[in-house]
Each structure stands twice: as structure tokens, then as C-alpha cells.
Specification:
By secondary structure, the protein is α/β, with parallel strands linked by helices. It has three domains: 190 residues, Rossmann fold (3-Layer(aba) Sandwich); 143 residues, Rossmann fold, CATH 3.40.50.1220; 184 residues, Thiamin diphosphate (ThDP)-binding fold, Pyr/PP domains (Rossmann fold). It is built from 24 helices and 19 strands. The strands form four sheets. It has a six-stranded parallel β-sheet, sandwiched between helices. It has a six-stranded parallel β-sheet with strand order 15-14-16-17-19-18, with helices on both faces. Strand 3, helix 5 and strand 4 form a beta-alpha-beta unit. Helix 2 packs parallel to helix 8, helix 4 runs parallel beside helix 5 and helix 4 packs across helix 17. It binds thiamine diphosphate (TPP) and magnesium ion (MG). The site of thiamine diphosphate has 19 residues, from helix 16, helix 18 and helix 20.
Length: 571
């Protein structure tokens, strides 16, 4: 994470919980929505992504008129939710605004993804006014059955807290929802009936203080970890996504430096820490990626997971095998050492105690991180996976923000060794295709001074391609690669018949005719790139059918086995 975003998160965790926050002293003339925006601004919200709608007008009018908060319009609500997610991965938190029913239900997929991947998003939803609700009126965007609470009930399952605001509850509910979102690092749902949003506040509340570690439990957890580490002849760390979500990369790095232990990362966790450092040994993906890394990690006497989640895609389809007795698992609010759980200990406190007390080892990194390089062949050669992936890896510059998609590109690029400061993002657990394009837009809004590189597949891009227009609207210049391999290659690799028709999709060439302004030829892109100091208006690079893509992709990954072994035979 960049310094900027680390600072933002620091601001979030202190300002948002300050007892003397000015936001709690609002006068009676402050409206409900103004109060909520004011508190969100206190904790670091400066943008709200969304799509307008009449039930949400009072929210949208307030956003547009609120000093220090900008409206970021999106093409549709699904895209807006992904954009908010991408923004929050850089900035720490995000806000989203949609209208009743039709808007919020389009966003619910993205909100569920944010829930799964621990991304805090404040979802502000406009609702019909209270008299319409009381009269069970047949108003638009309802199911026509006079019921108004269905959509809230649907949302409840994919957020960590929710409330329908009233002037009476708004002060307390705002504090509760802020506290929940920051504690769980997950989305919350706040609904505003149109007639409530502009009513004056009639209540006050004090920001909730985030929980602190229980000192005795903390001491026991830290001692148990230190004991396990000193008894271990070999050890390694697996820093993970939950540490990033809490803005604790510096604290993890301090532990790495103080311990002298090497670290590896899994797919969901890639680039949690700087990859250009001696302690980094590469990607640990069970049997799927680097065998030397797998052997080393699994041979260690102690393996410390720091916010890493053992999902199927992160563990190479569960081919990673960590001995529970030798595993230490540091989570946001508890720690486990072997089979013993230490509750009520905050990740931040555990890490700072470990960095202070751990004994430094002089352990030479046992494995060197692998890479996709070197680039082979001429630029005019047919595009195969062998030719393409090393070039993509080579293309990444220091400090780039790289968004990859669910599909072959995400797996392939996981093997790229990133240059200094570059960050890699992928929606690994939720894995909704179409995510990466709007998420890259959100990231570009969060970090307009950094280069954003989007690498997506043509199947995925077709779901959310409209969002490309938003980059241009805001003068943002990402580099966009769309890999056209004539269908859902990753699915072809996994299903029983690679040529089965459900893995074909709308020909991208045809889509190009429909939307010619979206794409530029490979040659034009390289020409633009090479033109001197040109801040080139980067377009979508359409990579036409890598020849014999399925076979080539598999071959290029041979030895690193991109599929579980059982599947490998069929591939
Ligand atoms: C919303 C959603 N629908 C369906 C899927 C199933 N799915 C996973 S990957 C994939 C194909 C991706 O194709 P593409 O973007 O062209 O990448 P490729 O693997 O071909 O490089 C599909 C349909 C999904 N993950 N998410
Ligand atoms: Mg494809």
C-alpha cells in the first residue's frame, strides 16, 4: 500500500473514533443525511460512487452540495459497487449510493464480494417515503405487493450491519455502523426514506471506541508465538489480505525485519508486502505454482499466517498442506497458536509486540522468488502464453497498480515478480467476472497519480466494459489489456469438453465493431507507448486469439502446474 493510503487508514482509525469529534455536536438544523455525510467525511470518505434515482435524490443532492465529498457517477450500480470496492482497496474505505430496489439489487453482487473479501463500503440507499410505505402504495421500484422491507432483508445477509435511518436513531446508528464496518472491514447498509433524509437531527451520540486487546490474552498469545518461533529451527511468514485491509502492512514489515524470517504470499495476498526485498521467497499456491516455495513452506517448523485466508484459489485448490500443530494464525481480533485460540487480541497489538520482542534470526532466504521472464521471441511472433505473460510482467513499472481478473490472466500474472512499489489486486475469493474493469476505475479515482494497469479477459470485460468510459470522463489514463482468447479459457480448462458451446461468448471482434472507440490495435498501442514521453491516451489493447491458446497456456505453466494434478491430465 502506498504511503498515502497508509496515512489515510491511520486517519480513519483515529479521527473516526475520537471522543471530541465535532460531528457529534450537530445542531438541530443539521439534517439526517448531512449528519451521516459529516461523520463519513470525518473517517476519510471523500468520494461517493453511485447511480442516481428519484428515491435517492435527497442523498445525492446532499452529496453534491457537501464540501469535501465528490459524487462519482458510474454506468450502472453493479459497476459502481465494484468501483467502490477497487477504491476501498487503495483508500481503505469507500461509499456507494444507489436507489431503491432496482439500484440496490444491481449492486448486491458487488456488496457480497466486498463482504467476502473484507472491503468496507458504506452503502447509502434511497427508499420511498414513510407515508407511501405505511399506505402500502403501489409505487415504482417495488414488487407491487405493498411490502417495503424485502430489499433491506436481502441486503442484511451480505453486510455486517444495517439500519433504516430516522431522525431519532440516526446519530446512534451512524456510530454503530461506522464501528461495525471498521471492526469487521466489511460493508454496511444505510437506508434513507426520502422524507427522512432531510429532516433535522433530534439525537446525538458519541463515536464508539474500537475494542482494545485484553492485556492478559495478548501476553499469552505473544508469548506462545515467541516460544513456538524459538523452538522452530526453520520458520516463515505468510502475510495476507486481512493485514492490508486493516492498513497494517508497515506493522507486518516491521515484524519481518525484526524476525529475519522469510515470507511467501498466496494469490489473494499477492503484494501485501513489497516483493523486491531479500525476505521474499515467492508465491505459495500449494502444488499450483512454485514447487520450491511449497516444499520450503510446508517443511518449516513454524508458519505464521498474518491475515492470510486459506481459500481454494489461494491454496492451489487445497493442495497446500499446513500442519495445524505448526501453524500460527494471526487474525484481526484473535490469534491461534497450534490448536489454542487466544481471543480478544488485536492484530495490530500482536504485531507490534512481536516486532519488539522477537529474536532476530540470521536465516538466509532458502528460495529465490521465481518470475515469468525473460521475454523471448520477436514482437511479431504469434501471441502465445509463453510470449505474452513475460511481456506483461516486463511491462509493469514500479508503483503500478495492477488489477487482474478472474480467469487465466489472474493466475498467469500471479507468477510475475513485481517491481518496487507495484501492487497486485484480484477478487480471488468472490471471483465475479467483470469485477476488474470497474474496480480498476475505482482504484484510478483513489490514486490518480499512479499508473493503473488492468489485465482482463474478453469474456469478463463484456460484463462491465461500459465503465471504460468513466476513465475518459475524468481524464484518467489507465493501461487496459483485454485478452481475447475466443471464450472462457479458464472454464475450458476445467470442464469436460473444451469445445463445448457454453464457453464461447460474443465474439470480441464483433463487439469491437459495436464499440470501435474502445479498442486500438496492438501496433498502435506500442507505437504510442514508444513515442517520446507521450502521456499516451491509453486504449484497450485487444490481444487477438493467442494461437492455440488453451494448449499454449497450459504448456507455458508446465512445471508450475496451474491446475490441480487431477485436472492436469485432462488439460
Ligand atoms: C459473474 C460470474 N459469472 C460467471 C462466472 C464463471 N466464470 C469464471 S471464469 C469465466 C470465464 C472468464 O473468461 P475470460 O474473461 O475471457 O478469461 P479467460 O479465462 O478466457 O482468459 C467464467 C464465465 C464467474 N466467475 N462470475
Ligand atoms: Mg477469454
Amino acid at each position: 500500500m502506498s504511503n498515502v493510503s497508509t496515512q489515510t487508514k491511520e486517519t480513519i482509525s483515529t479521527k473516526g473514533t475520537s471522543q471530541d469529534s465535532a460531528a457529534i455536536q450537530k445542531t438541530a438544523s443539521t439534517t439526517v443525511i448531512e449528519h451521516v455525510l459529516s461523520r463519513l467525511k470525518d473517517i476519510g470518505i471523500t468520494k461517493v460512487f453511485g447511480v442516481a434515482g428519484d428515491f435517492a435524490f435527497p442523498i445525492e443532492d446532499a452529496i453534491v452540495g457537501f464540501p469535501g465529498i465528490d459524487w462519482v457517477g458510474c454506468c450502472n450500480e453493479l459497476n459502481a459497487s465494484y468501483a467502490a470496492d477497487g477504491y476501498a482497496r487503495i483508500h481503505g474505505i469507500a461509499a456507494l449510493n444507489t436507489t431503491y430496489g432496482v439500484g440496490e439489487l444491481s449492486a448486491i453482487n458487488g456488496i457480497a464480494g466486498a463482504y467476502a473479501e473484507h472491503v468496507p463500503i458504506f452503502h447509502l440507499v434511497g427508499m420511498p417515503n414513510l407515508p407511501a410505505q405505511a399506505a402500502h402504495a403501489l409505487v415504482h421500484h417495488t414488487l407491487g405487493n405493498g411490502e417495503f422491507d424485502f430489499f433491506h432483508k436481502m441486503a442484511e445477509k451480505v453486510v455486517c450491519a444495517s439500519a433504516i435511518m430516522t431522525p431519532q436513531n440516526a446519530a446512534y446508528e451512524t456510530e454503530r455502523l461506522i464501528a461495525e464496518a471498521l471492526y469487521h472491514r466489511r460493508p454496511v447498509y444505510m437506508a434513507f426514506p426520502t422524507d427522512v433524509a432531510n429532516q433535522p437531527m433530534v439525537s446525538g451520540a458519541t463515536p464508539l471506541v474500537p475494542p482494545k486487546s485484553d492485556p492478559a490474552s495478548l501476553e499469552r498469545a505473544v508469548s506462545a508465538i515467541l516460544e513456538a518461533l524459538s523452538a522452530a529451527k526453520t520458520g516463515c511468514l505468510l502475510p495476507g489480505v486481512l493485514a492490508s485491509r486493516a492498513g497494517l502492512q508497515d506493522a507486518v514489515q516491521a515484524f519481518v525485519d525484526a524476525s529475519g524470517l522469510p515470507f511467501a504470499t498466496m494469490l489473494m495476498d499477492k503484494s501485501t508486502l513489497e516483493e523486491q526485498q531479500p525476505a521474499y521467497i515467492g508465491m505459495y499456491e500449494g502444488k499450483l505454482m512454485d514447487e520450491a516455495v511449497r516444499e520450503y513452506v510446508e517443511s518449516c517448523d513454524a508458519v505464521v499466517l498474518i491475515g492470510a485466508i486459506l481459500t481454494d484459489f489461494s491454496t492451489g485448490a487445497f493442495t497446500a498442506h499446513l500442519d495445524p500443530e505448526k501453524t500460527i494464525d494471526i487474525r484481526h481480533h484473535h490469534t491461534q497458536v497450534g490448536t489454542k485460540v487466544y481471543p480478544n487480541v488485536e492484530m495490530k497489538d500482536v504485531l507490534s509486540e512481536l516486532a519488539r520482542r522477537v529474536e532476530k534470526r540470521n536465516q538466509k532466504p532458502p528460495v529465490q522468488p521465481g518470475s515469468l521472464g525473460p521475454v523471448k521471441g520477436a514482437g511479431s511472433d504469434p501471441i502465445t502464453a509463453d510470449a505474452l505473460y513475460p511481456r506483461w510482467a516486463d511491462f509493469i513499472k514500479p508503483n503500478d497498480i495492477v488489477f487482474t481478473e478472474t480467469g487465466t490472466s489472474g493466475f498467469g500474472m500471479a507468477l510475475a515478480l513485481l517491481p518496487k512499489g507495484a501492487k497486485f489486486y484480484n477478487q480471488t475469493l468472490w471471483g465475479a467476472i467483470g469485477y476488474a474493469t470497474p474496480a480498476a476505475f475505482g482504484a484510478a479515482v483513489a490514486a490518480p497519480d499512479r499508473r493503473v494497469v488492468l489485465i482482463t479477459g474478453e469474456g469478463s470485460h463484456q460484463l462491465t466494459a461500459q465503465e471504460i468510459s468513466q476513465f475518459g470522463r475524468r481524464g484518467l489514463k489507465p493501461v487496459v489489456f483485454v485478452l481475447n482468447n475466443s471464450g472462457y479459457l479458464i472454464e475450458r480448462l476445467l470442464c469436460k469438453d473444451p469445445n463445448i458451446e457454453y464457453n464461447d461468448n460474443l465474439s470480441y471482434a464483433c463487439q469491437r465493431r459495436l464499440t470501435p472507440s474502445f479498442s486500438c490495435s496492438r501496433r498502435r498501442l506500442y507505437e504510442r507507448q514508444q513515442s517520446s514521453g507521450d502521456n499516451f491516451p491509453r486504449g484497450v489493447l485487444l490481444i487477438r486469439r493467442p494461437s492455440d491458446s488453451r494448449q499454449r497456456f497450459v504448456q507455458s505453466c508446465a512445471g508450475r502446474s496451474l491446475l490441480p494434478e487431477a485436472e492436469w491430465e485432462r488439460a
